[in-house]
Amino acid sequence: MPESFGARLRQRREEQAIALSTIAEQTKIKLSLLEALERDDVSHWPSGIFRRAYIRAYAHAIGLNPDVVAREFLEVHPEPAEVVETLSAIASAANGARTNAKPPTRLRYILDSAIGSLSRLRHGPAVKDRALGDLAPVSVAASADPDLLAVAHLCTELGRVENINDVQRLLQEAARILDAVGLIVWVWDGLAAELRPVLVHGYSDKVLAQLPAVRRDSDNATAAAFRSAQTCAINGNDHTSGALAVPLLTPAGCAGVLAIELQHGSEQRRSVRAVATILAALLAQLIDGGRAAEIQP
Hints:
Blueprint: H1 5-15, H2 20-27, H3 31-38, H4 49-61, H5 66-76, H6 81-99, H7 107-111, H8 116-121, E1 130-131, H9 148-158, H10 164-178, E2 180-189, E3 194-201, H11 205-209, H12 221-228, E4 232-234, E5 242-250, E6 253-262, H13 270-286
Antiparallel strand pairs: 1-4, 2-3, 2-6, 4-5, 5-6
Helix pairs in contact: 4-5, 9-10
């Protein structure tokens, strides 16, 4: 039996009589990256969340358990040193924030399944997910509306995107314009029948690794926005931030969800919702329509 990790993957693929070009077409991963993987050369592979997403997609395509393969992959090909150092710094900062008793993140509430972790994160009264049209008026602290000229520039730049690094940079700008804690772009994976995070700003890779993929019937705002093709909101309070979950709509259906964590009640403001909707519409254009799921009534 082949000893190297890549050689074992190749043997499994060939046993299944699956062409590498077929996997490239299904997963939208460059053929050259897949060929290099089977040679145990990942020097040109992306780092962080994309690294795991690629290997999980490959494993699924050849009929292996994505979680098991991803773990072994990271053991054989660990993250580049600079990525690990960055994640450690972010984790340390997060621990310091908890020590200072600052408002806890709503990331798990926005994205996770409705299990015990939800109740542990809540501080104060429970908050119910609801469609934006059903939100009751609340008192929102006065703050400046998003800069429309900055929004216009962001839209122009999104229309000129050529690679994933450009999108990552623009997500950072979007977060600045919206004064958002973080943003996550979830995309529907038709093979696994679940939403997976593909673009992230504001959260460490370590935190995201603890979050499960979101299935269509999950009990959270992200899944609700995907199912209904309508924006859903989570109201914040004095102890927790709020959020918007905005569907990514394409001609083929709902391709995913843009989840935005916000503070100071800005999830209630029309100007913020409008900019979030515009941003989601532009991001949807970057998503391959063939991967969109048909919207269910």
